[in-house]
């Protein structure tokens, strides 16, 4: 199966716009669960406003949030798929720029020193493009995540050592959620990376933060840590928008990687309540749009 750059470009454009407007079903269901269990009156009012905002965005074909974020694209390439790698990267950037200009969307991307905005949502090394491979036969999956700055500013890394133990991992995560407070627009998905190198650990935290609700860490110890941290975080009382309540996080997600015998990195990356994503799956039968 061959995937042409033109198809990638169109998909990238569509996914950026779709992700900014339509919240995935698992997040909507997450809101319903929090609303059903929340005991604080103010928190329930805030949750109701958030839920109404989701509906208004869909009914009016409008944006869920004014922050169109840093565009992130995750590409999974299966077996027997032909694609020009360089052309793929160019196509994603072109699709991103077209979505920004043709919709139009607010461009949130600037040069880090001059702060110049090209109004394309593109720049040096942006869109962020992560490419990996899967054993799926004749399939290419393109996932788009617009990562807003409010939640992305809730990113932290600590290089622990083995003697610190799992207790230090838990303490670091809980302390960082307390530090972030309402600035990350809770209820959130708290992504945690454990292991690897410093850069891999931060990437794992981002992967964890943008996983669908209801998914579980494939590592048994990581899944156990998810459950323990989810309970701990929702016992902090931070609540929706940091104004108190039970609903601080939809969940805590954990991703793990093997690491060096003398270190144990832990990273946190937080996703806000507008946990946006969209995907396109290319197969010989056509293109399937989803989340």
From TrEMBL:
<dbReference type="GO" id="GO:0051539">
    <property type="term" value="F:4 iron, 4 sulfur cluster binding"/>
</dbReference>
<comment type="similarity">
    <text>Belongs to the class-I fumarase family.</text>
</comment>
<feature type="domain" description="Fe-S hydro-lyase tartrate dehydratase alpha-type catalytic">
    <location>
        <begin position="10"/>
        <end position="280"/>
    </location>
</feature>
<protein>
    <submittedName>
        <fullName>Fumarate hydratase</fullName>
        <ecNumber>4.2.1.2</ecNumber>
    </submittedName>
</protein>
<keyword id="KW-0456">Lyase</keyword>
<dbReference type="InterPro" id="IPR051208">
    <property type="entry name" value="Class-I_Fumarase/Tartrate_DH"/>
</dbReference>
<dbReference type="Pfam" id="PF05681">
    <property type="entry name" value="Fumerase"/>
</dbReference>
<keyword id="KW-0479">Metal-binding</keyword>
<dbReference type="GO" id="GO:0046872">
    <property type="term" value="F:metal ion binding"/>
</dbReference>
<keyword id="KW-0004">4Fe-4S</keyword>
<keyword id="KW-0408">Iron</keyword>
<keyword id="KW-0411">Iron-sulfur</keyword>
<dbReference type="GO" id="GO:0004333">
    <property type="term" value="F:fumarate hydratase activity"/>
</dbReference>
<dbReference type="InterPro" id="IPR004646">
    <property type="entry name" value="Fe-S_hydro-lyase_TtdA-typ_cat"/>
</dbReference>
């Amino acid at each position: 199966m061959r995937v042409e750059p033109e198809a990638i470009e169109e998909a990238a454009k569509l996914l950026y716009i779709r992700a900014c407007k339509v919240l995935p079903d698992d997040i909507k269901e997450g809101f319903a669960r929090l609303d059903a269990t929340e005991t604080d009156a103010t928190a329930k009012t805030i949750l109701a406003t958030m839920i109404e905002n989701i509906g208004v965005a869909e009914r009016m074909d409008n944006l869920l949030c004014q922050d169109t974020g840093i565009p992130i694209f995750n590409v999974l390439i299966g077996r027997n798929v032909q694609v020009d790698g360089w052309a793929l990267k160019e196509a994603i950037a072109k699709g991103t720029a077209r979505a920004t200009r043709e919709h139009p969307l607010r461009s949130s991307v600037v040069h880090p020193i001059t702060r110049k905005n090209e109004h394309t949502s593109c720049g040096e090394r942006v869109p962020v493009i992560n490419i990996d491979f899967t054993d799926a036969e004749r399939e290419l999956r393109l996932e788009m995540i617009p990562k807003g700055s409010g939640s992305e500013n809730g990113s932290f890394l600590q290089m622990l050592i083995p003697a610190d133990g799992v207790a230090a991992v838990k303490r670091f995560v809980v302390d960082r959620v307390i530090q972030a407070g309402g600035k990350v627009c809770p209820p959130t998905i708290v992504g945690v990376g454990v292991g690897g190198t410093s850069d891999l650990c931060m990437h794992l935290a981002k992967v964890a933060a943008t996983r669908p609700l209801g998914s579980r860490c494939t590592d048994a110890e990581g899944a156990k840590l998810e459950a323990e941290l989810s309970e701990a975080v929702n016992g902090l009382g931070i609540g929706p928008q940091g104004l108190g309540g039970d609903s601080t996080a939809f969940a805590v997600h954990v991703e793990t990687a093997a690491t060096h015998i003398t270190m144990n990195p832990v990273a946190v990356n937080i996703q806000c309540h507008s946990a946006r994503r969209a995907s396109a799956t290319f197969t010989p039968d056509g293109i399937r749009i989803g989340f």
